[in-house]
Write a structure and sequence with these properties.
The protein is about 30% helix and about 30% strand. The protein is α/β, with parallel strands linked by helices and about 230 residues long. α1 packs parallel to α2 and α1 packs across α6. Bound molecules: cytidine-5'-triphosphate and calcium ion. The site of cytidine-5'-triphosphate has 14 residues, from α4 and β9.
Length: about 230
């Protein structure tokens, strides 16, 4: 059914999308980060805007080349953030106006307890460990305070070790976060991140698989929006 959607079936829909990966600084030159390129999140923003939605794209360390089309799109406003805390603030602001929230960003689960204003050096003594503190779960927070009718979508990248574990983990995660839809994909050392293609399951109410989408990140994005359009009615 790919491409079956109406070109402007999301006209006027207000959407907030997060994309990319947060970086948690350790000192002015080092950070804890992750491998998210932001491509899937940007594809979701572009797909929504091309279908008429008004999009706020909260981008955490997304390459300029990946963002180029979004920067030119009249229906997309980009906000740049760095850390999980900044991403949380930007998404909470965007959520006040948004009918649909898409958390495609890879958010650091932990941040260093202390950030040094000066570069850590071996001269000052060996660094044996880094103390971490947990970051707030942004999407769970947004879901707990959702407006009536607001649709909230989380993403998960999993590394299952047996058949069935991907969906089991996805269903538990959807429940734990209190989101409407959870989009899950399998990742590994050589799959999922920088790749242009993706395969995802969209999990909805009661853990039902509402879609199995595969192809370019743009094709997957359009399939996700088809599910959202259905949920919105
Ligand atoms: N997420 C979030 N805030 C965090 C961590 C994650 O909003 N502090 C969001 C992500 O943007 C994503 C969803 O939660 O939409 C799932 O992320 P994931 O890392 O899979 O979930 P976690 O609860 O952190 O589980 P895990 O321990 O497997 O990393
Ligand atoms: Ca996590």
């Amino acid at each position: 059914h790919r491409g079956a959607h109406e070109p402007h079936d999301l006209d006027g829909l207000r959407v907030a999308v997060s994309a990319g990966g947060t970086r948690e600084p350790l000192d002015p030159v080092r950070f804890l980060g992750n491998r998210s390129s932001g491509r899937q999140g940007v594809a979701l923003a572009l797909a929504a805007a091309d279908r008429g939605a008004d999009v706020v794209l909260v981008a955490a360390h997304v390459d300029g080349a990946v963002l180029a089309d979004a920067e030119r799109h009249p229906l997309i406003r980009i906000e740049h953030v760095g850390t999980a805390a900044e991403l949380g603030d930007a998404m909470r602001r965007a959520a006040e106006e948004a009918a649909v929230i898409v958390m495609a960003a890879a958010v650091a689960d932990y941040r260093p307890a202390d950030v040094s204003d000066r570069k850590l050096t071996k001269e000052a003594g060996p660094l044996e460990s880094i103390e971490l503190v947990q970051n707030e779960d942004i999407v769970a927070h947004l879901a707990a305070r959702r407006h009536p009718g607001q649709v909230i979508i989380a993403f998960a990248a999993e590394t299952p070790d047996h058949d069935g574990e991907l969906l089991e983990r996805a269903r538990r995660k959807r429940e734990r976060k209190g989101v409407d839809l959870l989009v899950v994909n399998e990742v590994g050392w050589d799959r999922g991140f920088e790749a242009g293609e993706n395969t995802v399951h969209v999990i909805g109410d009661g853990g039902a698989v509402l879609a199995l989408a595969s192809g370019t990140k743009r094709a997957v994005a359009d399939d996700v929006w088809d599910v959202v359009a259905d949920v919105l009615g």
